[in-house]
């Protein structure tokens, strides 16, 4: 199949087979920035310059631009698809964009810049391997910039691009760019982010987005697309220990397959081969992999992020939510979860609240035992709370007291302790990003309350863990 493709070097013609297209590298990335930093325009520029815009989409944007008074095509309209977004001129929801070049395919999570939608960045960045943080060259590093960098560090996104946008409005001044890049890099290092690439660009004019700009002769780094095409991807998933959360047990019981029993799911990390001995957690039962089945036929080996069905030698009890791990691995299993959460709901945290905790494909009942720390993003300090505070523990909407409760509110980042109704695999997020995350869900209406990371995170590095060991939920029946 012959096709015309656009790369950082321009438009070229190559012959690419369907197989080659399907097996090219995939980079998942997220964008973040303050309001009016030009994020939507940057994404629109990437889509437009890589020829990833369909003719009817471009026609619709041209018509919308004309309705606004004409002028150059407003590329921001390619991404601000909701009517409310276009009317307000800001992005208010997470949207996923797909585009590709000759060397790599991309899934881009476009997250809002407004402070009230910070929680949406957690959703967009949770699976990203690279984050693009936009800064307006006229404004520099803002509070929201630091907040996005902090979330990026918490979620352990391995690669960060600082896109210093609107350089055309500061006459492409090298000193301005260097000052912003140095300030952000220093802040990122304090968070533990070591891979930061700063790029001076103008999304509106296209400077250093796909094509190199002649207006920045002092800059010898890559364009944004050049960096996106060359940054390493998918390495961590293969190097991490094998994890296989079971999604469904397959038992067709047909005449052709009367005794077939397979365990379907996605390899979260690592590699598994036929003949490998595995342990089923949390039960601890052991068996051996005797088959790896896919829609296209059997395999001898599977790796992350492939979706496969595993067959085991023994008829062990395996159900949805169980996790298969290497038999020789030491994996923590328990009913007490401690971790850091980003609070996503309008309703604040309530001590003693009954929750659902979702880890991988497993959902268990739980109680929120403790909220013992909260991060101040502005000062990068942690307010540690000893013990627990039962103020407003029953009614989360009670604001009659002048004393604020020790609770997490919308967009807050804090440390919690949770008692689970049954044991689960407790992989630390710091070493198992793909299985160390969890969600807190309100069992009454299914609302997602918080997204969390198991084990020690940035908060534990910035402040000591509370030493109070009083378990005031002992005997609560869970």
From TrEMBL:
* Listed GO biological process terms: sulfur compound metabolic process
Matching SUPFAM superfamilies: EF-Tu/eEF-1alpha/eIF2-gamma C-terminal domain (SSF50465), P-loop containing nucleoside triphosphate hydrolases (SSF52540), Translation proteins (SSF50447)
NCBIfam families on file: CysN
Residues in domain Tr-type G?
A: 24-238
* Record-linked PANTHER family: TRANSLATION FACTOR (PTHR23115)
| Xref: CDD domains | CysN_ATPS, CysN_NodQ_II, CysN_NoDQ_III
Q: A Pfam family matched by this chain, by name? A: GTP_EFTU
Recorded protein name is: sulfate adenylyltransferase
Which keywords does the record carry?
ATP-binding, GTP-binding, Nucleotide-binding, Nucleotidyltransferase, Transferase
Please tell me which top-level EC class this enzyme sits in.
transferase
Record-linked InterPro entries: CysN_GTP-bd, CysN_II, CysN_NoDQ_III, EFTu-like_2, G_TR_CS, GTP-eEF1A_C, P-loop_NTPase, SO4_adenylTrfase_lsu
Cite the GO molecular-function annotations of the record.
ATP binding; GTP binding; GTPase activity; sulfate adenylyltransferase (ATP) activity
Q: Which organism is it from?
A: Cellulomonas xylanilytica
Per the UniProt record, which EC number(s) apply here? 2.7.7.4
């Amino acid at each position: 199949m012959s096709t015309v493709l656009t790369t950082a070097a321009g438009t070229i013609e190559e012959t690419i087979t369907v197989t080659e297209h399907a097996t090219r590298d995939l980079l998942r990335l997220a964008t973040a920035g303050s309001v009016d930093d030009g994020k939507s325009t940057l994404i629109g520029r990437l889509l437009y310059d890589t020829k990833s815009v369909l003719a009817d989409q471009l026609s619709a944007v041209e018509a919308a631009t004309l309705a606004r008074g004409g002028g150059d095509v407003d590329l921001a309209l390619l991404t601000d698809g909701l009517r409310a977004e276009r009317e307000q001129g800001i992005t208010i929801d997470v949207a996923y964009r797909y585009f590709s070049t000759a060397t790599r395919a991309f899934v881009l999570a476009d997250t809002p810049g407004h402070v009230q939608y910070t929680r949406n960045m957690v959703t967009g960045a949770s699976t990203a391997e690279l984050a693009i943080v936009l800064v307006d060259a006229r404004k520099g590093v803002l509070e929201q910039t630091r907040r996005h960098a902090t979330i990026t560090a918490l979620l352990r996104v391995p690669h960060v691009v600082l896109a210093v946008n609107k350089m055309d409005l500061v006459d492409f001044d090298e000193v301005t760019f260097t000052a912003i890049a140095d300030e952000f890099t220093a802040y990122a290092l304090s968070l533990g982010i070591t891979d930061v690439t700063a790029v001076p660009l103008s999304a509106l004019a296209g400077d250093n987005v796909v094509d190199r700009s002649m207006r920045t002769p002092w800059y010898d780094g890559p364009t944004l697309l050049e960096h996106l095409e060359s940054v390493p991807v998918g390495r961590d998933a293969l190097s991490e220990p094998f994890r296989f959360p079971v999604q469904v047990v397959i038992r067709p019981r047909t005449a052709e397959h009367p005794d077939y029993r397979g365990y379907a799911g996605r390899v979260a990390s690592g590699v598994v081969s036929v003949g490998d001995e595995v342990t089923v957690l949390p039960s601890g039962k052991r068996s051996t992999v005797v088959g790896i089945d896919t829609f296209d036929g059997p395999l001898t080996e599977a790796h992350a992020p492939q979706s496969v069905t595993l067959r085991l030698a023994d008829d062990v009890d395996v159900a949805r939510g169980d996790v298969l791990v290497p038999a020789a691995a030491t994996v923590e299993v328990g009913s007490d979860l401690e971790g850091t959460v980003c609070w996503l709901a309008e309703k604040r945290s309530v001590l003693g609240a009954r929750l659902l905790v979702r880890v991988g494909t497993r959902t268990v009942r739980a109680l929120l035992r403790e909220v013992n720390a909260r991060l101040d993003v502005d000062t990068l300090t942690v307010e540690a709370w000893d013990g627990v505070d039962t103020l407003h523990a029953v009614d989360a909407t009670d604001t009659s007291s002048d004393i604020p409760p020790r609770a997490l509110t919308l967009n807050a980042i804090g440390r919690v302790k949770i008692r689970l109704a049954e044991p689960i695999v407790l992989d630390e997020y710091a070493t198992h990003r793909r299985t160390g995350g969890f969600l807190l869900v309100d069992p009454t209406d299914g609302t997602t309350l918080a997204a969390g990371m198991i084990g020690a995170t940035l908060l534990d590095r910035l402040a000591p863990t509370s030493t109070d060991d009083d378990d005031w939920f002992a005997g609560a029946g869970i």
